[in-house]
Amino acid sequence: MTRSETEQLPRFPFEADAALAPPAEWAEFRDRCPVGRVRLASGDEAALITRYQDVRSVLSDPRFTRPTPADDAARVADTESGGVFNSEMAEVLPQHGPAHLHWRRTIGKWFTAKRMNALRPGIAAMAGQLVDEMVAGGAPGDLKAGLAFPLPVWVICDMLGVPDTDRDRFAVWSDVMLSMTRYTQAEFDDAQAEFGRYLRGHLAAKRAEPGEDLLSALIAETGPDGEPWSDAMLSATGIGLLIAGHETTANMIAKMVAMLLADRSRWEQLLADPALVRTAVEEALRLDANAGVGMQRYLTEDYEVEGTVLPSGTTAMCSMAAANRDERAFTDPAEMDLRRSPNPHLAFGAGAHACLGQPLARTELQVTLEVLLRKLPTLTLAVPESGLRRIEGLAVGGLQELPVRW
Amino acid sequence: MQVSVDEDKCCGAGTCVLLLPEVFDQREDDGIVVLLEQRPDARQHTLVREAASVCPAGAITVHEDA
């Protein structure tokens, strides 16, 4: 296909009118065009997959992974290099096979349910502190800036053994590195270089004086070859955990609270029965209407989806958010049912590459909601729902701010 | 009801353990699933089915008694 033909394709991700509502194209593609052709922000073409079963199958297929820089894959972002997913981090971390499995399982022990439960009191204390500070600033306040954005950085910095005083710099680096369109290539490169320098210094400090944190533990680990992890691997792991765990969770906290307050009977239902927090969090994850681009898969073999053969070399974009509203998989998919159970949504992906940090994300979302219900039961939106503004240009979408009163 | 788990498929997301720690656990060294109860108590069946259906890796199989 020629460049000018590609330019005619619908641009993905699609734009939606309202902050909490899905773009109309999701339902159109699911119904009429389950394997659609779209143009990414980079100008490259990809195949868009939108039905639940198809997204689940592609993501679970062990043959396919995220493209590596060596693949001639479509790029998501419009910066020259294609953003952080085409960066050195993506190159250093093993993406598939035994090396990926070893990396994943070494990190995995830091994300077990037991560890998450042990983290709960600490996360609740951090959330409580942030809520108190927001309240001290007077109503209305911005719950995104005051609570949702800093909390996941605090939690990750804690896991990485980063001092409290450096948390704000972490938040800025993470923001720039995840951006697809809001920063220039030079700004992206600067942030990546600065963060890399910081991490090298941090690693040297941890080698000299190990702590109880994840990076200190990884320094003492060996890879599948029996050799210690290289500094490049350790840094890439730190960067990976930050960008995977920060903006995603921060935006999801704000979107979740916005969804629950937009129809305040939902908030009241939770106040009356706080045991619904767990299923309410899952339902907010399922209904996230601004989840970003989804997951890329580079097809290294021909692959058939809904009768269409995607040739080897195709870049497939799996829209988990579109799949999560598929009426073939969920009853009344547009309804927010705080009791929905089971809720096998794909917000964290599926298969061998499903989000490693999902138990942490769940824990942060649940704890944040519990803290808010307890400390600020009178919480309401300070603007009409139509006044909420989307933030675009991130691999993960969100709200620009979440004005609230209490 | 009988439950089985596939350690090779497991991606260590811990979803099952968060739902039902009486039946599922994770290995300390890599987070992979450990089945504590092959034949869970009838009161746990609903949550076991939920754990199987939401497992991101499809690593939990439930065999219902005939």
From TrEMBL, chain A:
<dbReference type="InterPro" id="IPR036396">
    <property type="entry name" value="Cyt_P450_sf"/>
</dbReference>
<keyword id="KW-0560">Oxidoreductase</keyword>
<keyword id="KW-0479">Metal-binding</keyword>
<comment type="similarity">
    <text>Belongs to the cytochrome P450 family.</text>
</comment>
<dbReference type="InterPro" id="IPR017972">
    <property type="entry name" value="Cyt_P450_CS"/>
</dbReference>
<dbReference type="InterPro" id="IPR001128">
    <property type="entry name" value="Cyt_P450"/>
</dbReference>
<keyword id="KW-0349">Heme</keyword>
<dbReference type="Pfam" id="PF00067">
    <property type="entry name" value="p450"/>
</dbReference>
<keyword id="KW-0503">Monooxygenase</keyword>
<keyword id="KW-0408">Iron</keyword>
<dbReference type="InterPro" id="IPR002397">
    <property type="entry name" value="Cyt_P450_B"/>
</dbReference>
<protein>
    <submittedName>
        <fullName>Cytochrome P450</fullName>
    </submittedName>
</protein>
TrEMBL record, chain B:
<dbReference type="Pfam" id="PF13370">
    <property type="entry name" value="Fer4_13"/>
</dbReference>
<keyword id="KW-0813">Transport</keyword>
<feature type="domain" description="4Fe-4S ferredoxin-type">
    <location>
        <begin position="1"/>
        <end position="29"/>
    </location>
</feature>
<protein>
    <recommendedName>
        <fullName>Ferredoxin</fullName>
    </recommendedName>
</protein>
<dbReference type="InterPro" id="IPR051269">
    <property type="entry name" value="Fe-S_cluster_ET"/>
</dbReference>
<keyword id="KW-0249">Electron transport</keyword>
<keyword id="KW-0003">3Fe-4S</keyword>
<dbReference type="InterPro" id="IPR017896">
    <property type="entry name" value="4Fe4S_Fe-S-bd"/>
</dbReference>
<comment type="function">
    <text>Ferredoxins are iron-sulfur proteins that transfer electrons in a wide variety of metabolic reactions.</text>
</comment>
<keyword id="KW-0479">Metal-binding</keyword>
<keyword id="KW-0408">Iron</keyword>
<dbReference type="InterPro" id="IPR001080">
    <property type="entry name" value="3Fe4S_ferredoxin"/>
</dbReference>
<keyword id="KW-0411">Iron-sulfur</keyword>
